[in-house]
Design brief:
By secondary structure, this protein is mostly helical. It folds into 2 domains: about 220 residues, no CATH class; about 240 residues, no CATH class. The protein is built from 21 helices and 13 strands. This is DUF1688-domain-containing protein.
Length: about 575
Amino acid sequence: MGLFSRKHGSRHANGDQHNQNNGDVRLPANTKRANGNPAQNATFPNVPLPKAPDPNLDPAGYLRSIYAVRERSRLVLDKAKRNQLRHFTVDMSKFADTANYVVAIIKRDYDPDYSSIPPHGRWQHFEVGGRPRVDQLMATWPSAVDNMERTRRLIDLFLVSVLLDAGAGTKWQYKSKESGKVYKRSEGLAVASLEMFKIGLFSSRPDLTCQVDSGGLKKLTTEKMAKGLQVTVDNPIDGLEGRTNLLIRLGDALLNQHIFGPEARPGNMLDYLLSHPSTEVAAVPIVPLPTLWTTLMDGLSAIWPATRTQVDGIPLGDAWPCGSMPSHPTHPWENIVPFHKLTQWMTYSLMVPMQKLANVHFVGTELLTGLPEYRNGGLLVDTGLLTLKPEDAKRGLEQYQMNATRQGQPSVEVVPLFTADDDVIVEWRALTVGFLDMLLDEVNLLLGLRGAGKLTLAQMLEAGTWKGGREIAEESSLYEGWESPGPPAWDGPEPIDATTWNLRFAVELEALTAPSSSPLQEKRRASAANVAEVLQRTRISSSSGAPMSAHPLRAHPVQTGVERSMSGSFYSAQTNAGRVASSRG
């Protein structure tokens, strides 16, 4: 497979491959735990990026490319700036409130060391509660397992974990077998997938438990997955069968030896990328982002539903017609907006171990967009920037009432309900992509960051909008009397004060009155006060004149119809229209 191809060496008796002298590129022996790329201070040659496919010649190729996501969403954003959308009213006077809220969250948790903010990715979910589980996992591997093989193993783990990372429902939780702590949502799925990985559930080789391969995935059953995820009648998870079938289909996709090698492992894509003709070899390997993107889009195309939007008979994946887009009688592709949310989440996540351990430098990462999911999108609604128009709110509430009559469907919070392909949801997601770009510029300006010191989009997602979207939903719930999910479980030392929980408004206010015992506590209380002030100001001055929690489509921690439409539980979402393919992919 070229200069960086993997040569298969001997196996130790303990099952770990000895590949110190297997022809892999030489890397530092010590693995450092860091937030950024170890090669970030190196000087790199100019590596040109490939051009986007011409939509007039290859519309399907264009809409499947990463280039199309931002370009198509920008057309919807342009209409939003003129308040000419079909489904949402836009109050640009609230944009400053949204930016100030994000800045307050970032300052509270990272001021003044903004360079320490990690990029958005699955790695952080594994560390829920302050426990460095990935580092602890790698510490159990013999020193003979070099950084290249460590990277392969983490790619194995991260890819499966990302595919399992979709809405689990409001009732499911996971109790760690190692710590006894209980986790929910994305973090719960991360810990569960890690512990299943460690016992070899995804491997076909009993002597090599910490890997994922085609044989192991194709032996999965719903019963095995239910046991691994601790699913019972009293602890149900949404889409158990769909999750299982998705991993089985991944097993089929891994049979592509050109990308995944004879072992049929996700981690072997590292060797494919390093030997790719577009990869430059300098002080470190330099991989164009579109090369990784195409590898994931083409290599995993078999796992996505073929029933989604198509052009010229080619399924596009997470791409949908949008009424706010231009239409052309002979170019029907022009009204389609692609998002490819799950592939982007996978790209963000897989880059991290390749950067940290294999010193891979990716060029063109700015092509990735903000993720159009309910936390980021809900933030825009909760701060009053977007308000659902009355006729759509009425239609969504009628659909909610119909859905609430179905057995087992949630009826806790009354919110408008739409299917994943509804024009309301598609427009909302396109706006999320566009406004996240605008927020990045404004957030860097408000933080006073310039040049190389600016936050990347991945850093703002991690420290600001994704976290802020979750928190503002929890904060809003208190004003309506809803039960909050409470603080996340904590595996490490006790936090210095309540603000380190990054919790809801009430906890932040409580922290303001805590006795001062250190400059750090005083700083955190000041930051918490800033968050509370911005939140209260935004709530009082919402565009409808009502409390912010009254906004339709509010992103609430209770996973109701709109949240599932936005996050797009890939496996399927139960709605009044029946089980529908979701928007996550």
